[in-house]
Structure formats: C-alpha cells, structure tokens
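Design job #97: recover the sequence.
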C-alpha cells in the first residue's frame, strides 16, 4: 500500500500482516514485507476462521492486499481455508470485478479437502455479477452449477434475488415467467415475493400494484412475507395509511404477524400517525408474544430522533443495553443523522466503540461529511484516525469526504496529497477544479502546477 506524507503525519503506518495479527509488546511502525516474521511468532494453531475473516474484513477495500493476506496465511502458517473464508475472499474480489480470479478461487475450493463451493458461494457470485450489471454472466454462472451439482431451486432463487436486488427485475421476471423461463414458477409464492420486492427496489409503484393484483388473478397464495413487502411498498410510495389498512386486513384474516411484519407496521404508523401511536403497537407486539428485535428498537429510536425527542431515544437505547437486544451500528446512525452538536456526536461515537459496536465505512463517511459541511476539520481527522486505528482501510467515499473537508478549509496542498494517494491505491477521486484535476484521454490527471 502507498501512503502520502500527509498520511504519515496524521496516521500510523500500516503494519505488516504479522504485526497486525500478533502485536509485539513494543510496536514499531513498519512497512516490512510479510516474510519478515520473527521465529518467535505463534504457529498456525493461533489462527481460526473468525480471525482470518476479521483480517480479510480489515482489507476489504484493497483486494490485492486481501488476496495477498489470503495466500500468505495459507502458505506461511499452513492455515486450511474453510468455505467461509473462501466465500469472504470471493466477495471482496467480486466487489472489484475480479471475476476471472474469482473462478480460479472457486476451482481451488473444489480441490481443497476442507472447503467446497456451496449455495452461499454462488449467491455471492450472483450478487457481484448483478451489482456489476453483468446479467448474462450471472445467468451463465447459474448454468455452470451442474458442474458443482448445485443447479437447483435454491440456486435459482438466489439468482433471481440477486438480479432483483440490483434492479434487474425485467430480466428476472423473464427468467421466471417469459419464453426463456428456467423453471415453472407460475404458482411459486417465494418467486413472486422476490419479484415484488424487486419492483419495490426499483420504486415502480404502479408496477408493484399491477404485480400484486396479478398474483390474485393467477391464484398465487399470498403469505405473511407478501403482505410485509406490500406494506413496505405502500410506506415507501408515500401511502403509509394504506399499509396500516393492510395490517388491519391481516389481523381480520387471523394472520399471526411476525417481527418483520410488526416492524413494517410500526414504521408505517409512526409516519402516518406519529411516534406515540407507533409505541402503542410496539407494546401490543410484546403483549402478543412477538419479541422485538434490534430493527424494531431502531425504528422507534429513528422516529424519536426525527421528532427531536432525543431523551426518549436515549431511554430506548439504555433499555436495549439492559435487555437481550444489544444495539448495532444502525442504532447509532439514527442518532448521528439527527444530532447537531459535534461534541454530542463524538461522545456517542466513543460510547458506541466502548460497548463493542464497530463502525462501518458508512459511519465514518457520514460523520466526516457532516463535520466537513459544518466546517469542523479536527473532528474529521479524529474520525479518520479512529478508522485507521480500528484497522479499517478507507474506500473512495472516505477519501473524498476527507478531501472535500480539506478543500473547504483551503488546505489545498494536503488535499492534493490525499488525492494522489487515492490514485496510487487504484481508487477513483472526484474531479476537483481546486486541485486542478481533470480527465485526459479517459484517464485521471493532476496538474501539480495549477496553483503556481
């Protein structure tokens, strides 16, 4: 990895793999190669799949570094990769469109006595192909599953789910019901639910209604999941009162709501009738024997925060810590989006980490952008340093948030150094007039003399 002088000034250097995993009593910042491992290092028995997966997560925004570590832990420590660690590596490779290398890894799995490709493996592959808008490649991958004895209904549902998740619903619907259909899906509730959720993702509300009515015409049985999706559609299309109407219809039919359905109803009632009415449904839910989960509590906290009722939101947060429902990173995001004082945000950010909730890249980016908009540079660097301290490799959104904050404060030279660092790591910076950056023959170019 390459780091600018600006990085070295504000951040500790990245340690070698062995130093990251086995920190010595006195840490010396080092950029030595991974082969420079003292003989006193622990043997491979100190590695387990969760540790390896956590390390891969740390390098998830640098696929070369991830792949280097993946091979290193196997060759240097004789670690036997499991299907889980292979799958995590495949997900990282797919994120950077390294599909040829992904297939090489899948064939390595076939040869391994400790790991073999499973449905999760190809679900990841379908998802990455679909998110890269490589629909034909995703379908071809499904066809190849005969080789792995996994071309079945589960894999087909995973393919349709991946396509719908990435807004390729037209293609998914054609595979299910068109002339190129792969399976007979006319009466499948699960397939119809996946397509319905795909139209929800697209935000095509008239198509959602048309498909919902078509399910009735075809005699497709609507289950609890169908109703939960359509309630969510009504909420997102700006008609939460219709979601509440569906909720009453479900109760009239004697359908027993699960936590997913209740979460949708609480959100709908909170929007249409207010947070106090949502709280009543929350208590009704508990009385009906349906245990709230973290999403339920997050929904209530979000409603409180959006209404400026931070005291009530903190009460709910404290209750989550006392119950068997620990808060997650989304819980804290609800606060971060609404709070308006940097000191309060940073205190809550510290509390979040103290209680073992690890920030996501979205957390760092959200906070840096927020502080940057407010013109507070010191909190931006506090968040940036914490990101590096916790072993999270910055992605292009994080770099761009930092650079925007520096440009806003007129610190052009430092901003340019981070800009160049991004390019050196293969990330895509924004084109900024202040830095003299522009596209030249389809490539990225920096005019270093732009301010001279």
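Job complete. Output follows.
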């Amino acid at each position: 990895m390459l780091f600018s002088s600006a990085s070295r000034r504000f951040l500790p250097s990245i340690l070698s793999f062995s130093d990251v995993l086995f920190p010595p009593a006195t840490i010396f910042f080092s950029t030595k190669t991974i082969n420079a491992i003292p003989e006193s290092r622990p043997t491979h028995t100190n590695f387990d799949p969760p540790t390896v997966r956590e390390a891969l997560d740390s390098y998830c925004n640098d696929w070369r570094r991830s792949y280097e570590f993946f091979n290193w832990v196997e060759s240097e420590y004789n670690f036997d990769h499991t299907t889980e660690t292979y799958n995590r590596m495949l997900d990282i490779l797919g994120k950077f469109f390294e599909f040829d290398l992904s297939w090489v890894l899948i064939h390595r799995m076939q040869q391994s006595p400790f790991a073999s490709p499973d449905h999760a493996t190809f679900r990841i592959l379908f998802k990455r192909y679909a998110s890269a808008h490589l629909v034909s490649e995703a379908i071809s991958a499904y066809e190849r599953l005969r080789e792995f004895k996994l071309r079945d209904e589960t894999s087909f549902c995973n393919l349709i789910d991946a396509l719908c998740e990435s807004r390729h619903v037209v293609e998914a619907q054609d595979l299910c019901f068109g002339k190129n259909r792969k399976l007979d899906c006319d009466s499948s509730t699960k397939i119809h639910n996946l397509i319905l959720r795909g139209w929800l993702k697209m935000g095509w509300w008239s198509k959602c209604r048309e498909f919902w009515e078509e399910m009735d015409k075809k005699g497709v049985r609507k289950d609890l999941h169908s109703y939960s999706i359509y309630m969510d559609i009504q909420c997102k299309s700006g008609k939460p009162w219709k979601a509440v109407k569906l909720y009453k219809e479900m109760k009239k039919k004697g359908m027993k709501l699960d936590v997913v359905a209740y979460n949708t109803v609480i959100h709908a009632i909170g929007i249409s009738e207010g947070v106090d009415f949502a709280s009543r449904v929350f208590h009704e839910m508990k009385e009906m024997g349906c245990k709230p989960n973290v999403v339920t509590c997050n929904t209530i906290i979000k409603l409180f925060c959006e209404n400026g009722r931070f005291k009530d939101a903190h009460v709910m947060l404290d209750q989550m810590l006392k119950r068997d429902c620990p808060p997650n990173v989304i819980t804290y995001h609800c606060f971060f989006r609404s709070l308006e004082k940097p000191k309060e945000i940073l205190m809550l950010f510290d509390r979040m980490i103290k209680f073992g909730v690890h920030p996501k890249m979205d957390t760092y980016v959200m906070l840096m952008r927020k502080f940057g908009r407010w013109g507070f540079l010191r909190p931006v660097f506090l968040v940036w340093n914490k990101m590096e301290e916790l072993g999270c490799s910055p992605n292009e959104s994080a770099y761009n948030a930092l650079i925007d904050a520096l440009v806003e404060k007129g610190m052009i030279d430092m901003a340019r150094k981070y800009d160049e660092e991004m390019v050196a790591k293969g990330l895509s910076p924004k084109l900024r007039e202040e830095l003299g950056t522009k596209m030249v023959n389809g490539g990225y170019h920096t005019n270093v003399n732009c301010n001279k």
